[in-house]
Design goal:
180 residues, alpha+beta, Alpha-Beta Plaits, 12% strand, sequence-specific DNA binding
């Protein structure tokens, strides 16, 4: 992996992107999004993750976050959510795409270098150090406008699975530290 995409500054604030394998649109169901939110809340409470902004899209999520142990948190977060999402898809009687999603996740696991039973997330988490206010503002705007650009909502704060509500002065789904 390139040095460009490693979280080396333990005090830095990072823009992070985590993507579903094959960009599969998994997060179209509320219960799957809740698994992500609950896991992020756990990481905030128990693993020293500071969350400044976040947004769950249909096939990826963006975070602006910091932690002295960010690589470990991302590893654990991906491992845990992978198991929980796989189980949720498998056990969901309303999941019309169950066969296809399980096939995709299982095939990705078989093709991985570790030959796992399944693989939910693409490798890495693409951390970008936000080294100045301009970069921070640009990534924050990008993150919050993602659902608008995708045509899901007209205003960023209308997207429930995002911190845009917090930045609009409303109460959001997760606790965030607002960037000034």
């Amino acid at each position: 992996m390139s040095e460009k995409y490693k979280a080396g500054d333990t005090e830095g604030i990072y823009f992070v992107t985590i993507s579903v394998i094959q960009w599969a649109d998994v997060f179209t169901r509320r219960d799957y999004c809740e698994i992500i939110c609950n896991s992020l809340a756990y990481c905030q409470k128990e693993k020293n993750l500071t969350l400044y902004a976040w947004c769950i899209m249909t096939n990826h999520l963006h975070l602006i976050c910091s932690s002295p142990v960010l690589p470990n948190i991302m590893r654990d977060f991906k491992k845990y959510t992978s198991k929980e999402l796989y189980k949720a898809i498998k056990q969901n009687p309303q999941e019309s795409r169950k066969g296809w999603l399980l096939w995709l996740i299982n095939a990705a696991g078989e093709q991985s270098s570790k030959h796992e039973e399944y693989k939910f997330w693409q490798p890495g988490y693409h951390p970008i150090l936000l080294h100045d206010n301009q970069t921070m503002e640009q990534k924050l705007a990008y993150l919050h406008h993602n659902p608008v650009k995708a045509g899901f909502v007209e205003e960023p704060e209308q997207w429930y699975y995002s911190s845009a509500r917090d930045y609009a002065g409303e109460k959001g789904r997760l606790e965030v530290v607002l960037l000034e």
